[in-house]
Amino acid sequence: xxxxxxxxxxxxxxxxxxxxxxxxxxxxxxxxxxxxxxxxxxxxxxxxxxxxxxxxxxxxxxxxxxxxxxxxxxxxxxxxxxxxxxxxxxxxxxxxxxxxxxxxxxxxxxxxxxxxxxxxxxxxxxxxxxxxxxxxxxxxxxxxxxxxxxxxxxxxxxxxxxxxxxxxxxxxxxxxxxxxxxxxxxxxxxxxxxxxxxxxxxxxxxxxxxxxxxxxxxxxxxxxxxxxxxxxxxxxxxxxxxxxxxxxxxxxxxxxxxxxxxxxxxxxxxxxxxxxxxxxxxxxxxxxxxxxxxxxxxxxxxxxxxxxxxxxxxxxxxxxxxxxxxxxxxxxxxxxxxxxxxxxxxxxxxxxxxxxxxxxxxxxxxxxxxxxxxxxxxxxxxxxxxxxxxxxxxxxxxxxxxxxxxxxxxxxxxxxxxxxxxxxxxxxxxxxxxxxxxxxxxxxxxxxx
Length: 449
Hints:
By secondary structure, the chain is an all-alpha fold. The chain has a single domain (18-214, 233-438), classed as Growth Hormone, Chain: A (Up-down Bundle), CATH 1.20.1250. It is built from 20 helices and no strands.
């Protein structure tokens, strides 16, 4: 029995969870959704932001090459900061508590993202992105551990998957806000519109204070923290936990490489396709900018919709087929979706729609990590272990965006080069199938105290 369930709390509501458990889930859901929201804003504004800070004409050949290259660099920098923040704040969550850590990380990424609006050059922008990324990385470990420890054992998978549905919805919100600012209100001022997009990253700061007011520390954590020594990162590599750590890391790193390699370039690919189409239609500058923002919205929304559905589908897959089989299905589907989307000769609009299949698989598999990684570790080590496995893979995944960006920027036709580079990313999840023997099956396990 979960210690959080008091006598008064045993009255069940929707999906077998009481009111307070839903409050905890909603708080973590908001934290992760805005985490993704803030993390992705740069990808939307890169085609306008990068040329402006470099003094290049937006839409020019030089601007396109620079955008591809700097999108890769800044995305990789984000991932490195994300990894460091995830590891550091994962340990902090085991030391000072899940709720305090959740609030601190939300404030950090909110103010870091908003500060990007003031950047006078790319180096200052990079600094603010690093600050933001530390909070973005730390939020996940605290939120996932908190949800796993408060939920009833019978609903841990459902709660974990529901927690991750905020990721595609966070991207929907980022898409909507970017479109309203850059595609509607400031459509004819792309040199400044990106600054207002970054300012919207301040929204999560208000949510952080609500988390502090309404959410308590899980009883599981308080009980473990009062009777056990502080966790050490080195424990993850002892004989007792080495295989567990390898299992969590191996599944996460494959998912991270493919997600970040393709997601970081959705706006770039959509922009390239729209600009080529605008040239064929002989559209003027204003109409071209409108088409660019519209196609970025279409591609991202298909990706997010697929991700939302794919996330929810991890629930029946994990419960009835088991975690290892679920990862195998998603990795195979991811490879097929990426190879088809970027390898086939498709009409531009069809390629945009194909992002739904990428979202269904590449994005959807992440719904499993919010319950799979916390299942692997005991309470006193849960934030440290889950945070390490989920985030250290970003150090390796960071190579993906910078390589894709560099390869694409070298070609005479940057769009064709980007599509070719992304095609080869499709082999990453297929290689991931060979790591399945190292995955640990947690189906039917209770959460270890």
